[in-house]
Design brief:
Largest sheet: 4 strands, antiparallel
Mean pLDDT: 93
Low-confidence stretches: none
Distance between the termini: 11 Å
Length: 97
C-alpha cells in the first residue's frame, strides 16, 4: 500500500473577499475529488483573501499509479488560470517506511 500527499501553495487572482475566495477554491477542490477520487480540502491560510493552501491525499496499491495520479492533480491545479501555483510539496509513503 502506498499513500501520497500533496500540498499546494496558491496565489489567487483578483479576489477581494473570503466569499470570492471560496468561489475560486471550491470548484478546484471539487474537480480534484471528482476526476481523480482523491481526498482534497483547503488546509491552510483560510483567513487570507488572496492566498490559500490546498491539501490532497490518495491511497493506491501501486506506486506507479500513485505517482501518475499526483502528477495529474498537479497539472490540473497549475492549469487553472485564476490561480498561480507558488509551490508544491509531495510526500509518498510506502510499506517499507
Amino acid at each position: 500500500m502506498y499513500v501520497g500527499a500533496m500540498t499546494f501553495d496558491l496565489l489567487l487572482g483578483d479576489v477581494r473577499s473570503l466569499k470570492e475566495k471560496r468561489s475560486v477554491v471550491r470548484p478546484i477542490v471539487a474537480e480534484l475529488q471528482r476526476k481523480y477520487a482523491v481526498s482534497a480540502a483547503e488546509t491552510g491560510q483560510q483567513d487570507l483573501y488572496r492566498r490559500t493552501e490546498l491539501g490532497l491525499a490518495v491511497v493506491s496499491g501501486d506506486a506507479g499509479h500513485l505517482t501518475d495520479v499526483l502528477d495529474r492533480c498537479e497539472r490540473l491545479v497549475a492549469g487553472h488560470p485564476e490561480v498561480e501555483l507558488l509551490s508544491v510539496r509531495r510526500r509518498i509513503h510506502g510499506d517499507d517506511d
